[in-house]
Specification:
Blueprint (H helix, E strand, L loop, with lengths): L1 H19 L5 H13 L17 E2 L5 E5 L7 H4 L7 H12 L20 E5 L12 H17 L5 E5 L1 H13 L15 E4 L2 E6 L4 H4 L6 H12 L1
Parallel strand pairs: 2-3, 2-4, 4-6
Antiparallel strand pairs: 1-3, 5-6
């Protein structure tokens, strides 16, 4: 069992190195690098990551959290998914309250954050303009999510943050040979069993959703309570 874990962990490391060096999408490469060059006054003097983002967390996790893509001044700056932006603040506080994280803050790659039984990733690995990846960019990235699912054999529950992530995971399921018809519809709180996985839908913790009250901390907590069960 230990050997199997080590082999899986090594394979995941190899996959993450491939992700980090990916340059398949010219538009996304240009955007992530231009964003890093211009920066933001609040982060003056900081060196941006400006590369694709691998997943983060416990490689033996039974719960996987899937988002849309890195934020231009969040993960694209810090080098860790959902780190350094408001959406990440909401997500990791919820993971902490559900006992998946050792601390509620996610500020930088070296802040001491560790996840237990949870792994956070995204459908698209580069920050897209206006947070809207093109269909061909999603398809270029999708094999990485498929490979993560193949390697992370303990995963049983997948929490998708938003409709884009929900649909991306369904596409990954189809690539794995899982039956996804009739196609389940996304909704906050939607739950469906597909193969060995249980798919849970949640609104994305974007400012658009959290500022308007469309998503509350209580609503997000309920999703992770269900995931934990």
């Amino acid at each position: 069992m230990i050997f199997k874990f080590m082999k899986s962990s090594k394979s995941l490391d190899i996959l993450n190195r491939r992700i980090i060096t990916c340059r398949k999408c010219p538009r996304l490469v240009a955007w992530r690098e231009e964003t890093a060059r211009i920066g933001k006054p609040a982060f003056a003097g900081q060196t941006y990551w400006a590369r694709p983002l691998p997943g983060f967390g416990d490689v033996q996790a039974r719960v996987m959290v899937v988002g849309l893509a890195p934020a231009a001044h969040g993960g694209n700056r810090t080098g860790r998914v959902f780190t350094g932006d408001r959406s990440g603040e909401w997500l990791y506080r919820a993971l902490y309250r559900a006992a998946f994280a050792n601390q509620p803050q996610s500020l930088s790659k070296n802040d001491g954050l560790k996840l237990k039984n949870a792994y956070v990733t995204a459908v698209v690995r580069c920050a897209p303009p206006a947070n809207k990846p093109l269909p061909e960019e999603r398809e270029n990235c999708l094999p990485y999510l498929v490979e993560e699912l193949k390697l992370m054999t303990h995963v049983r529950v997948i929490v998708t943050l938003g409709a884009f992530a929900w649909n991306g995971v369904l596409r990954a399921f189809r690539a794995l040979g899982e039956k996804t018809t009739p196609r389940p519809k996304f909704a906050h709180g939607a739950e469906v069993k597909i193969g060995r996985y249980r798919l849970l839908g949640s609104y994305h913790p974007s400012q658009q959703n959290t500022f308007t009250g469309k998503l509350t901390e209580k609503m997000l907590d309920e999703i992770f309570k269900r995931a934990a069960k």
